[in-house]
Amino acid sequence: xxxxxxxxxxxxxxxxxxxxxxxxxxxxxxxxxxxxxxxxxxxxxxxxxxxxxxxxxxxxxxxxxxxxxxxxxxxxxxxxxxxxxxxxxxxxxxxxxxxxxxxxxxxxxxxxxxxxxxxxxxxxxxxxxxxxxxxxxxxxxxxxxxxxxxxxxxxxxxxxxxxxxxxxxxxxxxxxxxxxxxxxxxxxxxxxxxxxxxxxxxxxxxxxxxxxxxxxxxxxxxxxxxxxxxxxxxxxxxxxxxxxxxxxxxxxxxxxxxxxxxxxxxxxxxxxxxxxxxxxxxxxxxxxxxxxxxxxxxxxxxxxxxxxxxxxxxxxxxxxxxxxxxxxxxxxxxxxxxxxxxxxxxxxxxxxxxxxxxxxxxxxxxxxxxxxxxxxxxxxxxxxxxxxxxxxxxxxxxxxxxxxxxxxxxxxxxxxxxxxxxxxxxxxxxxxxxxxxxxxxxxxxxxxxxxxxxxxxxxxxx
Length: 462
Prior knowledge:
One of its GO terms (cellular component) is plasma membrane. This protein has 462 residues and is an all-alpha fold.
């Protein structure tokens, strides 16, 4: 099958190609080794390498400068959690040992992230020569950062994770390029994404991103059971991949073919239970912390709730936010079901997934800067147009910069109390997401788009 080249398909790529000789012609020859996928992998590697360079200012001083980490936008959660959650002592994240729990807070992330962080801590210790841990056990936790061996390990821990994240980004690119075999270049918006460059090292979210990319790939190959497995593993890393099951349900209902949905749900449930089992068995109370932490969380960074509190000068109760956010999300999902069932053409799994996850993010109690990665693999396949990607990711970058300057108190109002520029940045981000969602939904009702995409949405029961 002939590969669709971006200069033959995308107006922005066509215009930019004039600077390097124009669009690809009908008689252009290919290269035996430099296939589109290999070029995409190189582009991903370059993007991620630039992302590591962007964090070099913080890496040089081991994230000790409290202002520079925000002004240079190079903040990362990784170094602080290395000492703050016991990884410097190789403590099992779900240990119920009284001494461990007296020294360290429980890891507030899902089990997949906790496993990865604990595993990379072991690798870090091994690279550092496996130093003795007894002196660390005897020192107060707030003094660990200043210990020379630990201080060196903090940098190593970030590097070990960065290498692992780079491998995950490469794998995600390969999977996304394979979803539509005639359109591998759609994955270029992921490979060269500014969001990947700036947000890839903030937290462990790329673990979930690669699971979503894998779920899209297996679905395109007609393997709903494996799609469910990857959704279940992803949900054990971050909750949002679970929402892809809603997209699968819409496609099953639309086609009246239910066996694929059954296999996906079964695979997801089994995978989620198996991944969570070691943590639950070793420390059920510690395993529950993620759920209790999120249910008791108040309005936080980037959320529409924080914006409304800032604008109206009030504070919403946690129960109020929990109730209304879930009611809104339920209504959003009901609307997605109606639109998906009445669409002129069958939506794709990526399109439905994008719309559902975006609805969740719009009313979630927090929008951390790296959450843009949640939408990225879905967006590049749901709307493979450079103009739309640049508008949406540009809006996300406005928020990415604003949130760090907000934390550094650079955006405080002279009158005090409110933060108008930060509020505006949050609204820009929300409008960017709504813009992308609107384009995707409108495309379901236009005939012109029906033949443009090699859709994977009809593969529901194979």
